[in-house]
Please model this.
Amino acid sequence: MIEFINVTKHYPGRHHVLRELNLKLPTGQMALLTGPSGAGKSTLLKLLLRLEDVSHGTLMVNGVDVSTLKKRHIPAYRRRIGVVFQDHKLLMDRDVFNNVALTLQVSGVSGKQIQSRVRAALEKVGLGNRIHNLPATLSGGEQQRVGIARAIVHTPEILLADEPTGNLDGSLSTEILDLFRDFHQHGTTVLVATHDQSQVERLGLPVFHLEQGMLQNSKEKSA
Amino acid sequence: MSALHIRREAAQNALNTLLKQPLATLMTIFALAIVLALPVGLFAALNNLQQLLGQWRDQAQISLFIHQDATEQDIQQLQKQLQGSTGVVNVRYVGKEAALKTFEKNAGMTAAIKILGENPLPASFIVELNPLSESPAALQAQVQKWARQPGVASAQSDLHWVARLQAILALGKRAVWILAIMLAVGAILVMGNTIRLHIAQRRDEIDIASLVGATRAFIRRPFLYQGLIQGAIAGILAWIIIAITIAILQGPVDRLATLYGTRFQLLGLTGLEGLILIIISAILGWLGSRLAVGQHLDHTFS
Ligand SMILES: Nc1ncnc2c1ncn2[C@@H]1O[C@H](COP(=O)(O)OP(=O)(O)OP(=O)(O)O)[C@@H](O)[C@H]1O
Ligand SMILES: [Mg+2]
Model:
């Protein structure tokens, strides 16, 4: 369960980016986060990852109060989350295997386990035959799937994605978002920020629509 | 989290990074080695100087004149006491007759002495001291103690030279210490700067690792190991530089010593000293990277 309770966020010396935000996403649900550019979608996801601190209010994630989480507990908390970015954030000097393995290495998983779990994750995203490629030799869609494999290889409780299809054409976007829906159907809580109106309509999932840092309640319906 | 395999991977990671840029790594190691070899070499030089000066025992020579009425027993007891005292390298007894002979030979006053009819010169002990064995004050106190022993008439000593020598050595040591501390700070900064560059090069990797939940310790470890490894290798290299320098200088030192009719073997670092050098050097490397990591990891978005 993700729960924003009266969450306000302002960057130093700036107006509020998020204002008194209240949002609830029950465990195992999937929802989309929409809104115009600058509405605060990325900021909201950064709060969830504790890449940014909450200014006021409370943010609860699966029983953890993220807004007051001590710095030294942040790494362990982040290991319960998977995150995908529009620009993949892959390490270009490492092959696909090692990019995905990083998530497990930081939690101290042993080499043998890493082998099998990375392979399994890459199979899931359909890249089982690209294990030793460098990212630069992959297409944009494939790179994004490496990013997704890295985000799910440790079977996180929550999967976050910030415009994961922003750089991809229509059919690839469909593929990627269907992947997210698969994970959600296997019990993962998923929150995806997207601009892509056609996908929003196609998926028919609950939508949180942000405008100027505030949630437009009308579209919150089923979440 | 701190399982062995994690440390091993971090060490492997550190080694890979170093081997990926062999030239830069070597340059850092050489720079560190030279920075370390300088003060350690000077310490070795001081040590050798001290060794050499300790041999100038005739420069710290004390004469204890024996009382005319001293008994044979007094003299024997005194000799035993002198030989057992700290810093005493040699004790020589000069009897009345021997003293007279020396006097005659040196002063050519045979006639004058003959007129006196009786040998006026006292017997004495010539005590040779290692001038560096004790402080001048302690040596002086010891001489005064000897002068009060039964059978001793008076003592004659000139310890000014010892005081001066020791003062100069103390000054030298202090100067080398200051230099050593400054260069240690220099070594830390050299390493810190190198690691800072490595951190900048690997910014992406650090950011992403932090994003997927790497702890600070996990991110820091490979950099700390890099500092440790380079520091240790620099220590070994510094030891080698000092050993080579000493080997090169031994030849001229031999020739010089021969001119003075002695032998002098230059001392290098002992095994233990070498080991300490390597450990200190490794610690300095570690401290340098610790400094860089402490400063530059905080700029991550974690
Ligand atoms: N680090 C920052 N410091 C200051 N202002 C920031 C920072 N990050 C974002 N902002 C501002 O906060 C507001 C919301 O930004 P955010 O990136 O969350 O929007 P977004 O909804 O993700 O937009 P987009 O659809 O373009 O990605 C914007 O006005 C942005 O300029
Ligand atoms: Mg954004």
Q: What stands out?
A: Residues A 11, 14, 17, 35, 37-43 surround adenosine-5'-triphosphate (ligand 1) (CB under 6 Å). The interface with chain B takes residues 49, 51, 71, 74-79, 81, 83, 89, 91, 102-103, 105-108, 110-111, 150 of chain A (CB under 8 Å). The longest strand of chain A covers residues 16-25.
